[in-house]
Structures are given as structure tokens and as C-alpha cells.
């Protein structure tokens, strides 16, 4: 299957501007490794490698993969966790000219079967050390029922597959380097380097082809945007074989000769690693927003210069708490499809707190369009975020019908995110305002769930929130808020008083609360709203729903008793900045 190409004129522009290079990712990495041979390339929980060691080891692995009969262009499913071998395998597969397909360790037959058939996967790389699930057995079963899968490759000790850790170890390093160079000469920098997966919450994820030149540029520009150097030590705790992991951690750190400090989602494991390795930068996704409360956080961040927040809505209290400790805080909004928005050094505090900043590249093009049209909206108005540029895809793989809906007539990708341009201190920044379809229809009034969630997060005791529609026989839908709170559960009147104090229109107030220890997530890390909506629908059908009195629906906003004469109501200003969970990336 051939990916949707970038227009020739765009390719010339990106290359003539010096954005796209003329080498493959494997060649780019080899150049960096030769320039920084003795520096740490990766330090993980299970080992470490210098650039010279990683370069040689991945040469040997590539030669070993070629010896198995795998040919350039063959797709390889990656289903591994954050360990040293995952990074070795990533570069080894690229050096062999193979195409990594970045699935998640949590994917199962529904996702893996569909994805592997769509790309024609030839090999399946799995982790033998995953707790509570036999990924090796799963891969074996998948292979038996699959038309193209021939090999099960294994990280760790398991005799049922080909051991990646020892593959190619018996070869001569110079000979392995010659094999890699021969393979790389046959690969064009504008060929597909890897397949990432879309972050959609429904159906099986769509396949996103990423090309060598644009994918490496995406990462190198990200590193430049934060001012990273060969002395930077980049901590990464979320899944590494995912777009955020590859762009923001593996490739970005290595593009400048920096070190990847590869932890895991478990803070008890990762914070001591960060402390020991003197991490200078860390990306915190929503799952780690409470890391600041961990007893090991202070020691882990003693050398940290920058903390980037991404993946979900950023509570102002978190921003303030981190800033009070002396950290520089920025935000990232990115997607596997390409576009990155960041609040880089130099952005004013208000922009870093309330927006996701500006596009990563000087040649990124961003439009805010009226949803479903190609008509732009004005600054300050909310519309659909659409983009094209030097690292944003021009079409999903083998999805012509979906592509017809997902792109404008002139090639702008419709992200499905609601956004607005805002001006702060004379600068123009992007504010993420929610998702187009994340709406509650309350008697004809459309309520943006993201907006309500952002307002909920301004309550000092609410640490996470997800808003979903609750079936109602009279109005069709009402608003149910699932909350994670500090301390005792909140009563509905207390939350409504919070909304009233902010001057929020009464029809937007939550009408039922459900408390949870944590907000459920889909396999790609998004809030699992389908599950929450099904949960509240069952409770309503069972007669367990409680809600605020109906009278609020009929009270004009101007007559609300909370508003006092002579004191205008405060306008609720959403705290944008990490709209829907992406990769998060």
C-alpha cells in the first residue's frame, strides 16, 4: 500500500528551506553516534548504553534481522514496554530497513489483528516481561491465524520466539555496518519510516505513515524548541514506542546527542532513576500530574530545568505548585498525525498557563474553520483546528473514504479539536477548547463537555474530571460529571456553587456527580467516555439517577440569585492547554 504523498511543490519547499534532510533516520542516528561516541545515549531501569554501544548493537541486530529473511519495507509490529531493549529494537529495525508499527502493550486481538492485516505485518516484536499477560503466547496465537506474519521476536527470556537480545551477536561489527549501509542506500528519505496509530476513541486506530525526513525533522525541531544540547538528559515515563515517546524522547534527545533517561509509569521506579541520572527535562502526561505530591519528587527533579505538561487539561493549581518550586513550565499539544503546538521559552506566563502556544515549525500552517466547512473564523472565535505542514500527514494509510472527510480540499488535516487564536502580550497563541463531537445536547442547548471539565478543574479539590451526557426523558440529555477529588466526596450543591461563583450559565452546571478513584482510559490513553456514558445510562435506567431541581432550566441567566446587584458576574474562562488526550502524545 502506498501512502498519500506530499505534493511535489511542498517537498521542494521543505527541503529547500533546510527542514527536510536527505538521509534516513538510521543514517541520521549513526552520524550523531559517531559525533558523541562516549556519551550516554540511553539509561533505562534495566541498563545503559553509550552512543557507540547503541550504534554497534543496533548494527548487529539489523544484520541479524536481515539474516532471518526480513526485507526492507517489511512491517514489524512493536508491542513492548519501556525497557532498554525497546530502544535497541527500534533503531535495529530501522537500520534493517523495516517499518516499525507502534502498537501498545495493552492492545489485544481486536486491535492487533486489524492493524497487522492492514499493514501486512511480517514480524511481531513482543515483550516477555509484561505482568499479568502472556504477550509471547498472544503473538504466537496471532501468527497462526495471520496471512503474512512469519516471525515472533521477543525482548527477554522466552524460548517461544526469536530472542532479540542475542540476535546478530555472533556477527562481526564491521560486517554488520556494511550490511546496514547497503540497506540504507536503497531507502529514500521520503519513504515510510514507521507507522504510528491514531488516538481515536472509537473503532480500531487508523494507521499514520511517518516518513524518514519529516519524522526526524519533527523530533529535531522539538529538541531545538526547548534549547536541548548534548548535555540534556531527557526523562520519559510514558509509553516510549508511541508518537510522543519517539518524537519527544528517543529521536529528539538523540538528534542533539542528548541522553534518554527511560523510566516507566511507576513513579516508585522512575523517580529514583531520574534522581540518580540527574535528568534535566521531563514530559509529564496526565497520569503523572500528581507526581509533585510523591515523596521522591524533590530529589528526582533536583537537576530539572524544564517541565513540559501534556496529554490532558492542566489544572492551574498544578502549574502554580510546580512554578513555586522554581521550575520553568511549558505545555505541549501534539498528535501522531503531526502538528505540534508548544509554549516555548520566551512565551509569557499567561500564555504558558492558558494556551498550548504556537506551531512548532515556521512552515506549519494552521487554520481555525467553522466545523464541517472550509470557512475561517475570526481571532477569539472557536472553530475546528486544521493544519498542514512539513510533518503533518496528507492521508491515513488505506483509508480513502475517511481521508475524504478528514482533510480539506487543499490538504489541511481536520484534527477534530476545537480551538481559538488568542492574543496575549501582543503574541498570537492557540487555545484548545475541546472536541467537536464532545457535546451534550440539553434540550437544544449544546454544552461543550471540555469547557465544563476545565471549569471543574478550577475547584481546589478536584484533580480530574470527565463530563458525559446523562439520558433524560424531558430534555434528552443532562450533564453528569465523573470526578476524582482530594479527601471526601463533594456534594452536588458545593460544585454548583463553584459554577455560580464563576458566573457560568446555569444550563452548563453538572446535574449529577459520580466519584471515582481514577478516570478510566482507553488503550491509547484517552478518557474512556464511551464507558462512562454507558455506566451512567445503566444507572439512569435502573432508577438510580439524582439531579438538581428542574427549576434551573427555566430561570433566565440574568435573574440568577447568586449574582448581586452592582457586581457583574465573573465570566468563566476555560483553562485551555491540554485539550483532548493525544500522545501523548
What does this structure look like?
This protein has 17 helices and 25 strands. With 585 residues, the protein is an alpha/beta fold. Strand 19 and strand 20 (427-435) form a beta hairpin. Helix 2 (25-35) packs antiparallel against helix 3 and helix 3 (51-67) crosses helix 4. Mean pLDDT is 89; it is low at 545-584.
Strand percentage, roughly?
Answer: 15-25%
Based on CA atoms alone, the radius of gyration comes out at 24 Å
Helix content range of the residues, please?
25-40%
| Major β-sheet annotation | 9 strands, mixed
Structure in a nutshell:
This protein is α/β, with parallel strands linked by helices.
Notable traits:
single chain, 585 residues, alpha/beta, Rossmann fold, GMP Synthetase, Chain A, domain 3, nine-stranded mixed β-sheet, five-stranded parallel β-sheet, globular, disordered C terminus, ANL_N_sf, AMP-bd_C, AMP-binding protein, AMP-bd_C_sf
Write the topology of this structure:
Elements: H1 8-16, H2 25-35, E1 40-44, E2 47-50, H3 51-67, E3 75-79, H4 84-95, E4 99-102, H5 109-119, E5 123-127, H6 135-144, E6 151-155, E7 162-163, H7 173-185, E8 192-197, E9 207-211, H8 212-225, E10 233-236, H9 243-255, E11 259-262, H10 267-277, E12 281-284, H11 297-300, E13 306-310, H12 316-324, E14 328-334, E15 340-342, H13 349-354, E16 358-359, E17 365-369, E18 383-388, H14 400-406, E19 413-424, E20 427-435, E21 439-442, E22 445-448, H15 449-456, E23 462-472, E24 476-485, H16 492-501, E25 512-515, H17 529-541
Parallel strand pairs: 1-11, 3-4, 3-5, 5-6, 6-7, 10-11, 10-12, 12-13, 13-14, 24-25
Antiparallel strand pairs: 1-2, 8-9, 14-15, 15-16, 17-18, 18-19, 19-20, 21-22, 23-24
Helix pairs in contact: 2-3, 2-4, 3-4, 3-7, 8-9
Amino acid at each position: 500500500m502506498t501512502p498519500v504523498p506530499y505534493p511535489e511543490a511542498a517537498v521542494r519547499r521543505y527541503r529547500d528551506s533546510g527542514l527536510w534532510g536527505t538521509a534516513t533516520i538510521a543514517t541520521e542516528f549513526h552520524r550523531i553516534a559517531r559525533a558523541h561516541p562516549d556519551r550516554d545515549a540511553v539509561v533505562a531501569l534495566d541498563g545503559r548504553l553509550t552512543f557507540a554501544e547503541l550504534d554497534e548493537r543496533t548494527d548487529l541486530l539489523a544484520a541479524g534481522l536481515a539474516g532471518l529473511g526480513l526485507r526492507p519495507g517489511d512491517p514489524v509490529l512493536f508491542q513492548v514496554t519501556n525497557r532498554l531493549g525497546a530502544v535497541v529494537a527500534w533503531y535495529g529495525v530501522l537500520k534493517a530497513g523495516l517499518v516499525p508499527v507502534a502498537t501498545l502493550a495493552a492492545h489485544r486481538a481486536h486491535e492487533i489483528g486489524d492493524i497487522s492485516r492492514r499493514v501486512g505485518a511480517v514480524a511481531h516484536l513482543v515483550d516477555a516481561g509484561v505482568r499479568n499477560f502472556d504477550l509471547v503466547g498472544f503473538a504466537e496465537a496471532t501468527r497462526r491465524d495471520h496471512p503474512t506474519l512469519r516471525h515472533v521476536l521477543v525482548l527477554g527470556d522466552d524460548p517461544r520466539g526469536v530472542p532479540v537480545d542475542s540476535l546478530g551477536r555472533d556477527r562481526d561489527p564491521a560486517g554488520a555496518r556494511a550490511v546496514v549501509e547497503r540497506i540504507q542506500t536503497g531507502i529514500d528519505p521520503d519513504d515510510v519510516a514507521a507507522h504510528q496509530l491514531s488516538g481515536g476513541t472509537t473503532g480500531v486506530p487508523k494507521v499514520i505513515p511517518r516518513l524518514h525526513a519529516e519524522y526526524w525533522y519533527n523530533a529535531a525541531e522539538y529538541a531545538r524548541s526547548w534549547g536541548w544540547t548534548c548535555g540534556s538528559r531527557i526523562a520519559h515515563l510514558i509509553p516510549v514506542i508511541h508518537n510522543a515517546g519517539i518524537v519527544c524522547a528517543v529521536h529528539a534527545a538523540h538528534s542533539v546527542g542528548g541522553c534518554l533517561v527511560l523510566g516507566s509509569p511507576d513513579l516508585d521506579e522512575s523517580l529514583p532513576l531520574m534522581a540518580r541520572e540527574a535528568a534535566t527535562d521531563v514530559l509529564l502526561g496526565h497520569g503523572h500530574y500528581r507526581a509533585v505530591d510523591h515523596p521522591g519528587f524533590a530529589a528526582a527533579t533536583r537537576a530539572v530545568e524544564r517541565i513540559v505538561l501534556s496529554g490532558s487539561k492542566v489544572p492551574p493549581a498544578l502549574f502554580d505548585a510546580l512554578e513555586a518550586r522554581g521550575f520553568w513550565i511549558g505545555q505541549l499539544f501534539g498528535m501522531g498525525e503531526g502538528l505540534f503546538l508548544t509554549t516555548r521559552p520566551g512565551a509569557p506566563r499567561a500564555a504558558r498557563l492558558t494556551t498550548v502556544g504556537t506551531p512548532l515549525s515556521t512552515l506549519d500552517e494552521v487554520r481555525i474553520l467553522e466545523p464541517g466547512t472550509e470557512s475561517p473564523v475570526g481571532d477569539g472565535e472557536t472553530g475546528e483546528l486544521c493544519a498542514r505542514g512539513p510533518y503533518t500527514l496528507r492521508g491515513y494509510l488505506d483509508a480513502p473514504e475517511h481521508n475524504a472527510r478528514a482533510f480539506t480540499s487543499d490538504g489541511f488535516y481536520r484534527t477534530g479539536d476545537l480551538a481559538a487564536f488568542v492574543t496575549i502580550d501582543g503574541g498570537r497563541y492557540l487555545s484548545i477548547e475541546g472536541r467537536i463531537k464532545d457535546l451534550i445536547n440539553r434540550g437544544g442547548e449544546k454544552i461543550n463537555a471540555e469547557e465544563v471539565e476545565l471549569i471543574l478543574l478550577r475547584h481546589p479539590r478536584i484533580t480530574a474530571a470527565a463530563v458525559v451526557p446523562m439520558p433524560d426523558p424531558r430534555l434528552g440529555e443532562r450533564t453528569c460529571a465523573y470526578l476524582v477529588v482530594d479527601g471526601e466526596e463533594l456534594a452536588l450543591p458545593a460544585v454548583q456553587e463553584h459554577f455560580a461563583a464563576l458566573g457560568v450559565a446555569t444550563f452548563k452546571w453538572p446535574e449529577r456527580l459520580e466519584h471515582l478513584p481514577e478516570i478510566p482510559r482507553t488503550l491509547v490513553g484517552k478518557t474512556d467516555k464511551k464507558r462512562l456514558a454507558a455506566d451512567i445510562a445503566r444507572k439512569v435506567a435502573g432508577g438510580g439517577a439524582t439531579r438538581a431541581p428542574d427549576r434551573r432550566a427555566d430561570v433566565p441567566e440574568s435573574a440568577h440569585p447568586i449574582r448581586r446587584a452592582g457586581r457583574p458576574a465573573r465570566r468563566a474562562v476555560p483553562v485551555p492547554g491540554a485539550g483532548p488526550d493525544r500522545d501523548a502524545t
